[in-house]
Write a structure and sequence with these properties.
Strand content of chain B: 5-15%
Oligomer: heterotrimer
Strand order of the largest sheet of chain C: 1-2
CATH superfamily of chain C: Formate dehydrogenase/DMSO reductase domain
Number of strands of chain C: 2
Structural class of chain C: mainly alpha
Number of domains of chain B: 2
Chains: A alpha/beta, B alpha+beta, C mainly alpha
Distance between the termini of chain C: 21 Å
Order of helices and strands of chain C: EHHHHHHHHHHHHHHHE
Number of helices of chain C: 15
Radius of gyration of chain B: 30 Å
Helix content of chain B: 25-40%
Order of helices and strands of chain B: HEHEEHEEHEEHHEHEHHH
CATH topology of the largest domain in chain B: Alpha-Beta Plaits
Largest sheet of chain C: 2 strands, antiparallel
Chain lengths: 367, 323, 404
């Protein structure tokens, strides 16, 4: 392969640099680093990627091939060497299985394994089989030779919809089954394709994993709550909430918190990176965030339940520097009771005083 | 012995003099800030009311949120004033006649040079750090008497009223958190407009005066905290009267110093109580003696004692008899 | 008659009277509320706030009720220092009242403080804070509680010594050993019992000096300690009078003539107090605000009116001969003196920032419960131990402690 390969297949240099610069920014690296990222992307050894599908809807793949920078062809053929992907590959049947085996053998220890979908464990994993092999076995074999495992989507990261109660197939996340390899979770339903690309390029550029949070998600993409950069945030701070779908507030673009938006508890970059290269995301369309990147939110709480905000912030109004009267004052019952007790005490004293002899020494004989 | 009215008055006067005499002594000593004392300088005209300091303070010092009453969704952290969950707060003053006239104000501990809370605390749970002058609190010593709250002229220490095991809460300039880690209190670290800055008190005071001189007419002449209750390590500049910003009008004298003055003159070297005891003992013993002489009280007193001795002996004999 | 065990008697009467049950009810109610406070926190039962960190538990139970409990102190001063031995029979009941009054203060403080488990801090020298008035008051009141118990101890020992049936032979034995020894040193304890209240009653006044600008200038003065100690004295005498008449009525005993003579002292004490009060106001230039006609001024005038009325009554010989008038005067002085303390601790206290305070119902009933407990304890104790003054000429009807 010559140095030119990359550009001859349709990705223009300008586009390419824009992409790498964008991804560099996404990773939170200094701008000057983008040349290094570009170098990593143009290096001869395009990373071999093996992509396995288990219990899933292929939404993650769909999301990936809808990225416009780069377009799917450039992505699959030039940026990475996508050796095996059941929906995108041309081959089928035994031919397809052979290419998987070949690629694993040829790149043993070097390929990146991308897993899409959860893995069922019930009854020895018979609920998901590809080419007569259960998902558990496929994952085990493929993970053994992988340099790193990237779990794309909420299903492979956290179990997703099939792991939701009552979980008849005992589906678990792929991440929970791979113990001896570095695992990166890129959750989302679907995740932003750029988060996957940025993760792969980070790994290629620095030969190490990006910094991960405690759920195994790259911090550059999942370090902050979507609430922090939401365009509806000023409405939240000011207390302007849509109370139900289609009401005045909803049509005015007010905050969707009361419609069940999980933005305040969801760590993701949706409000910044957005989707489909046209700057949209669910909240911009008027639907509350469903918290798809959070293992404890989606499929665990109702979409329309209000989120419990943990790190709550001040509103955009202020307490008065000269406060109104406060402190717990008198209430009628208390005043009444205390008045009665005081009255009784004074009355008792008065009665006592009255019973006491008025005169002087003459009462001496009284016993 | 019959005592006359004159005797009575004499006794009363002596006792009174013992209490009173020291009080008339010396005026207040001067309070002076340590050269190394650190504090904060808040310029109300620079504050944009972003509340970054409020959020950061809570985060750094691990304080709970204070939702508004009735806010069952816990949407906002909206304390109305400093409270047991809020060490630092931004408030707003709006002119009633002219709503465009407004000013923000930040409240937190003023870190008095002569702190009343430290003077009041019976068990040294409130302390002033030597050198830096930071006033801080140790919950492991505190008995929760809330005398510090009574004493503080600014109403800064707050008590965890709803807690079963409550403590006092107040700003300690992030002494154990941000100041320790980053050498700057959290509020000063995050302030985007440098409306609140951290430094040595003398430098801050010089800066405040420099700003006043450089911007004639912009600021009130009064630097709040320069002299209030003997001076505080946190000082304020504002473009409006400090009354509007909710600050109390305070004397330059420190009530803490007044209290200590009274207490130390009465209890100096514990002489007065000991002298009082000695004096009372002398009078009482003399009285008793005279009573015994005059009224032959002695015999009566003996009666019971003799009886007791008698019974004790009897008991002893009984015991010996048993053996 | 001089100080002697022969002055006292056990008031032989039924303990379980209707009054006993009424007091027991309030005591139990109070203690239940106290239990609730210890589980749910102070905020759950009281109306105290960050503006008014001290409510009636301090203003009444500590600041005022210890003054009501100054009977023992005031009597000891008259008897031992001014050498009026004829009042000696009154002292034991005064001491028992004092003991319960101070116990009430102590218990109330333990209810009031938030971090009671740290109270041992007072016994750790490195934590002592001599600048703190509260430190002095706390240590002093703790010491005085011990002193009061020792002062009451002879009454209890005598009871065991004179016990006819040998129900508690061991106790009787120890009582006989301790009693003579205690008797020898008791005078020094008694004097300590005069010194300590002089110290902490004045310090209770000093305590509010540090409130500075928060306390209304009508009450905020450097002379607060002096005002408080004199105030403690006349309240103490008034309590002795009140308590004597009240027990005479309740226990159907003859009136104790000594108390009427005692009332002669009071106008002198209140006279000094009023002089100090007005001179101080004049010197500080606060006379005008004291009579300005605002809320605080009315509170001040009420305080003055009560004390002046009580003083005026007791200035006249003919009134002093009337038990009724003496009792009324004592009531005026009790309420007026207590009013002054309330003014200093609560009513005149106005923190910056628009705060207000009024006790809550549970808070009030905790105080009522503790007071009921105090009266209950007094009623039971005088029926078990030789505490009440001996009724002269009534030996036949009343069995005395010394009866063989």
């Amino acid at each position: 392969m010559s140095d030119n390969t990359l550009f001859s297949t349709g990705l223009h240099r300008r586009d390419f640099l824009r992409l790498t610069a964008g991804l560099t920014a996404l990773m939170g690296l200094p701008y000057a680093m983008h040349t290094k990222v570009a170098e990593a992307a143009t290096a001869d050894n395009r990373p071999p990627v093996i992509w396995l599908h288990f219990q899933e809807c292929t939404g993650c793949s769909e999301s990936l091939i809808r990225s416009g920078h780069p377009d799917p062809a450039a992505l699959i053929l030039d940026l990475i060497s996508l050796d095996y992907h059941e929906t995108l590959m041309i081959g089928s049947g035994h031919q397809a299985e052979k290419s998987l085996e070949d690629s694993m053998k040829a790149n043993w220890g070097k390929y990146i394994l991308v897993v899409e979908g959860a893995v069922p464990l019930a009854e020895d994993g018979i609920y998901c089989k590809v080419a007569g092999k259960t998902a558990v076995d496929s994952l085990k074999d493929a993970a053994e030779g992988a340099a790193a495992v990237i779990c794309i989507g909420t299903c492979s990261s956290f179990g997703g919809v099939q792991a939701a109660d009552p979980n008849p197939t005992q589906a678990v996340s792929a991440a929970s089954l791979v113990k001896d390899k570095p695992v990166i979770n890129v959750p989302g339903c679907p995740p932003s394709p750029y988060n996957l690309l940025a993760t792969i390029l980070y790994y290629l550029t620095f030969k190490k994993l990006p910094k991960l949070d405690k759920l195994g998600r790259p911090e550059f993409a999942y370090g902050r709550r979507i609430h922090e950069h939401c365009e509806r945030r000023p409405h939240f701070d000011a207390g302007r909430f849509a109370e139900q779908f289609g009401d005045q507030g909803h049509s005015e673009g007010w905050c969707l918190f009361k419609l069940g938006c999980k933005g305040p508890v969801t760590f993701a970059n949706c409000s910044v990176q957005r989707f489909n290269d046209v700057g949209v995301w669910p909240v911009s369309m008027g639907h509350p965030c469903i918290g798809c990147t959070e293992p404890d939110v989606m499929f665990h709480t109702s979409i329309y339940d209000k989120a419990q905000i943990h790190e709550i912030t001040p509103p955009d109004f202020y307490p008065n520097a000269n406060p109104a009267p406060r402190g717990k004052g008198a209430d009628p019952v208390t005043t009444g009771v205390i008045g009665m007790v005081a009255g009784a005490a004074i009355a008792a004293s008065a009665i006592m005083a009255n019973k006491l002899p008025k005169g002087g020494d003459d009462e001496e004989n009284k016993a | 012995m019959k005592k006359t009215r004159r005797d009575f008055l004499k006794t009363a006067a002596a006792g009174g003099a013992l209490m009173l005499a020291p009080l008339s002594a010396s005026a207040q000593q001067e309070i002076k800030a340590d050269d190394e004392a650190v504090g904060m300088f808040y310029d109300s005209t620079l504050c944009v009311g972003c509340k970054a300091c409020v959020s950061k303070c809570k985060q750094v010092n691990d304080m709970a949120a204070a939702p508004m009453p009735g806010d069952s969704d816990r949407v906002w952290d909206a304390p109305n004033d400093l409270d047991y969950r809020t060490r630092n707060i931004i408030k707003l003053y709006k002119d009633e006649q002219d709503p465009t006239k407004h000013a923000y104000v930040k409240y937190q501990c003023m870190h008095c040079i002569k702190p009343s809370c430290v003077s009041a605390c019976p068990v040294s749970a409130m302390q002033k750090e030597a050198g830096t002058g930071i006033v801080f609190y140790d919950k492991n010593i505190c008995i929760g008497c809330r005398y510090c709250q009574v004493a503080c002229p600014f109403n800064i220490p707050k008590f965890e009223w709803p807690e079963t095991f409550p403590k006092i809460v107040k700003c300690d300039l992030c002494k154990f958190t941000n100041l320790k880690l980053k050498n700057i209190p959290a509020c000063c670290e995050v302030c985007p407009t440098n409306a609140v800055i951290y430094g040595k008190r003398k430098d801050l005071l010089a800066e405040a005066k420099r700003r006043q001189a450089a911007n004639p007419g912009k600021y009130e002449e009064h630097i709040y905290g320069e002299f209030e209750v003997g001076g505080t390590n946190v000082i304020y500049l504002a473009g409006t009267d400090f009354n509007n910003l909710g600050f109390p009008e305070l004397e330059q004298e420190s009530a803490a110093l007044m209290s200590e003055h009274v207490q130390h003159t009465v209890y100096k070297g514990f002489i007065a109580p000991v002298a009082l005891y000695g004096f009372l003992a002398f009078v009482a013993l003399r009285n008793r003696k005279s009573v015994e002489e005059v009224e032959h009280e002695h015999e009566l007193e003996h009666e019971l004692e003799v009886e007791i001795e008698h019974e004790l002996e009897k008991e002893k004999e009984e015991k010996e008899g048993k053996h | 008659m001089a100080g002697n065990h022969n002055d006292y008697m056990v008031h032989r009467a039924k303990i379980l009277t209707p009054a006993f049950y009424v007091l027991l009810f309030f005591t139990v109610l109070g203690f239940l509320l106290i239990a609730y406070r210890f589980v749910m926190g102070i905020g759950a039962v009281s109306n105290m706030s960050d503006g008014y960190p001290w409510g009636i538990w301090i203003a009444y139970d500590v600041a005022t009720s210890t003054a009501f409990a100054c009977g023992g102190y005031a009597m000891a001063l008259v008897i031992y220092i001014m050498n009026r031995m004829k009042y000696h029979p009154l002292i034991r009941s005064a001491l028992v009242t004092s003991m319960f009054g101070y116990m009430l203060a102590g218990m109330s403080v333990m209810v009031d403080v938030g971090r009671y488990w740290n109270a041992y801090s007072f016994f750790i020298p490195s934590r002592w804070q001599p600048n703190s008035v509260m430190f002095e008051v706390a240590v002093c009141i703790m010491a005085y509680n011990v002193v009061l118990i020792i002062e009451v101890l002879p009454a209890i020992l005598e009871r065991f010594i004179h016990m006819k049936d040998n129900r508690f032979p061991k106790l009787k034995h120890y009582a006989m050993i301790i009693y003579p020894k205690l008797d020898k040193v008791l005078i020094f304890i008694v004097i300590l019992g005069i010194t300590l209240p002089s110290m902490h009653q004045s310090s209770l006044g000093s305590m509010m000096i540090i409130a500075g600008s928060k306390l209304n200038p009508i009450w905020h003065t450097e002379l607060l300690p002096l005002l408080f100690i004199i105030n403690a004295l006349y309240i103490g005498y008034a309590t002795v009078i009140f308590e004597s008449f009240a027990s005479s009525m309740a226990f159907r005993r003859p009136f104790e003539k000594e108390v009427q003579q005692l009332s002669k002292i009071i106008p002198y004490v209140t006279g000094i107090w009023l002089t100090v009060r007005f001179v101080d106001l004049y010197v500080r230039g606060q006379l005008s605000s004291a009579f300005a006609g605002d809320f605080y001024s009315w509170m001040f005038m009420a305080e003055m009116l009560l004390i002046l009325t009580g003083t005026y009554i007791l200035m006249w010989n003919q009134y002093r001969r009337s038990p009724r008038m003496v009792f009324i005067a004592a009531m005026f002085l009790l309420i007026g003196g207590g009013w002054f303390r309330f003014n200093v601790y609560l009513i005149g206290f106005k923190p910056h920032g628009n705060w207000s305070y009024f006790p809550s119902l549970p808070e009030f009933f905790i105080t009522i419960g503790l007071v009921a407990f105090e009266i209950l304890g007094y009623m039971v104790l005088v029926k078990l131990f030789p505490i009440m003054p001996k009724v002269h000429g009534h030996e036949a009807s009343a069995e005395t402690a010394k009866a063989h």
